[in-house]
Design brief:
GIY-YIG endonuclease; globular; Nucleotidyltransferase, domain 5; 19 strands; five-stranded mixed β-sheet
Length: about 575
């Protein structure tokens, strides 16, 4: 231990707070919280350590502490600092947005939306759903079953949904608040799992349609019934007390920790989520840290259940809700179910590719290969256009080998020579890092561009012009147009011989391609659709929005018949649009 560390340890206080470990390059490599800063921080250096903790301690040049009033303040500060520095030794859950809710409008026309928070008081919220796909499927099912408004803006004429019996057509009909209130109550009951009445009604309609030899219609009713049965099967309720609760269990093996939690809301199971991370330090401390991370994007329930006294005690320092363990009954059975899921997640993880487990080592190897500091924060750029039309640029960020989508950026190319990829790269690099410089934000450790030496030159020139210094390398291709290595501004090449490092870089490259192409398609489809609508008399903004809702791309619009278009447009407008599309 160095004299600097001994002096810092002697100055530690018996107080709650947050500590930051720095390496010799003054980079924050770990952030932690403590009830007692002296006890927690000193034990890193005064006790023997193993594994990843040992590696972290060996990398520490000095540390600093921030004393706070209580443990809740320490938790908030710790999370803020982690998201500011992204320390490489902090075990973080994969970056993701907040869990979605199904939002039901309280007054006026009955509408459903997917929202990521509960800030709008005009809606009543159901959820959260750990799987956003489940939330969207639920909304789609309710839209098919109940006649609720689908359009964002009221059209002047009835649309296809009205003719299908899936909308009350508030555009032409006056709907009473009593009728709306009854419809809302039916939807609320459905979202709470009480769907036996609507299922019975659909069965009667299916039988009636079949008797009238309307087999296609009967098949549609059968699909709706099957969808309800699927929801019922996935929302099996073991407890009938209608309490909002989260149930946690964890398992560890061979240096890896699996945490599983089940989300119950109003007695219904809304989903399961499992996370696999490398073990770091004490097991109970790490599980507590992971749970607090989860509640950054998921609101607290009424109860948390986890069968570990140390974790229960720790969590009670942060949250003013019921937190406890159980030893028998149906809730214990649910804990055992969560435990089985945690163990199964480990089994699946060890059976699958272990590339994720080697990311930190691979990033360190990449730094040595390129003769730069270990690039814990990498940003990749790509451009996309179609013969110069709808040009866009895109940037994706990887921190500690994981995609960090909150840092992704899209760029609409502004210069006039859209076919010139090198000018596009120069523009995007200039705009992005000029903004970071103005806002005094942290730069990445490495920039990767696709396209070889010319793109490296474009990016490097852009950085020089704005006086920003960041290593830039290009991903170059071999004679078969496959990525085979990296190239620097001087034309030196760095072949990638480690297959795992190659696959990691390929995964990053594929991600920036995907992000750029998806943005380009989005912009191009919008531009093409708008051009089809131009110069058609009677096709105003409201009708264009309605068409965009039903026909989101050119292919679906081309497949529409005049009869279909006439259900939402005046007959002559529908004919004019149809003729323009097909001519």
């Amino acid at each position: 231990m160095t004299e600097k560390l001994k002096l810092l340890i002697s100055n530690l206080k018996h107080a709650p707070g947050v500590y930051l470990m720095h390496d010799k390059d003054d980079k924050v490599i770990y952030v932690g919280k403590a009830k007692d800063l002296y006890k927690r921080v000193s034990q890193y250096f005064l006790r023997p350590q193993t594994g990843k903790v040992f590696k972290m301690v060996q990398s520490v040049d000095y540390f600093e502490t921030i004393i706070v009033q209580n443990e809740k303040e320490a938790l908030v500060l710790e999370m803020n600092l982690i998201h500011q520095y992204y320390p490489r030794f902090n075990i973080l859950l994969k970056d993701g947005s907040h869990y979605p809710y199904i939002a039901l409008k309280k007054k006026g026309d009955v509408t459903l939306q997917i929202k990521r928070n509960k800030k709008d008081n005009a809606y009543e919220y159901f959820g959260p759903f750990p799987n956003s796909g489940a939330a969207y499927k639920m909304v789609d099912l309710i839209n098919k079953i109940y006649p609720i408004r689908k359009c964002h803006h009221i059209p002047s004429e009835v649309c296809l949904y009205y003719h299908l019996g899936q909308c009350l057509a508030p555009c032409v009909n006056k709907i009473s608040e009593e009728e709306y209130s009854e419809l809302r109550n039916q939807i609320k009951e459905f979202l709470r799992g009480n769907n036996s009445d609507i299922k019975h009604e659909l069965k009667e309609k299916m039988i009636s349609a079949s008797s009238n030899m309307e087999y296609e219609l009967a098949g549609d009713y059968k699909k709706l019934i099957d969808s309800i049965d699927h929801i019922n099967a996935s929302q099996t309720v073991e407890s009938k007390d209608k309490v909002d609760r989260d149930i946690f269990a964890f398992s560890s093996r061979n240096g890896y920790l699996s945490l599983t939690f089940l989300i119950y809301r109003n007695g219904m199971l809304l989903g399961k989520e499992s996370h696999i991370v490398e073990q770091f330090g004490e097991e109970e401390d790490q599980v507590s840290d992971l749970i607090t991370q989860l509640y950054e994007r998921c609101p607290l329930p009424d109860e948390i259940i986890i069968n570990n006294e140390a974790i229960v005690k720790e969590l009670k320092n942060y949250y003013d809700i019921e937190i406890y363990g159980v030893s028998r009954g149906k809730l214990y059975d649910l804990i055992m179910s969560a435990k089985s899921n945690a163990e199964n997640a480990l089994d699946e993880y060890f059976l699958s590719s272990k590339l994720d487990t080697d990311k930190m080592e691979l990033i360190d190897e990449l730094g040595k290969l390129l003769n730069i500091k270990t690039p814990y924060h990498i940003e990749l750029f790509d451009n996309s256009h179609l013969q110069g039309s709808s040009p866009v640029g895109a940037m994706v960020a990887f921190i500690n080998g994981e995609a960090n989508k909150s840092l992704y950026r899209k760029f609409k190319i502004e210069h006039e020579e859209a076919r010139d990829d090198f000018k596009s790269m120069n523009e995007v690099i200039t705009r992005h890092y000029s903004r970071l410089k103005e806002e005094n934000k942290k730069y990445p450790d490495l920039i990767l561009v696709d396209g070889g030496l010319p793109q490296v030159q474009s990016a490097t020139d852009a950085l020089k012009n704005i006086e920003v210094n960041i290593p830039v390398f290009g991903l170059y291709k071999d004679d078969r147009h496959s990525t085979s290595g990296l190239i620097d501004i001087d034309g030196n090449t760095y072949p990638i011989e480690n297959k795992k490092l190659f696959f990691l870089l390929t995964r990053m490259q594929d991600e920036v391609h995907r992000f750029a192409i998806s943005f380009h398609k989005e912009k191009r489809n919008k531009a093409m659709t708008v051009s089809y609508f131009d110069d058609i008399k009677g096709l105003g903004s409201k009708r264009r929005e309605l068409l965009n809702h039903f026909y989101p791309d050119i292919v679906s619009l081309k497949n529409a018949t005049i009869e279909e278009l006439s259900q939402m447009l005046p007959e002559q407008v529908a004919k004019d649009l149809y003729n323009k599309i097909h001519n």
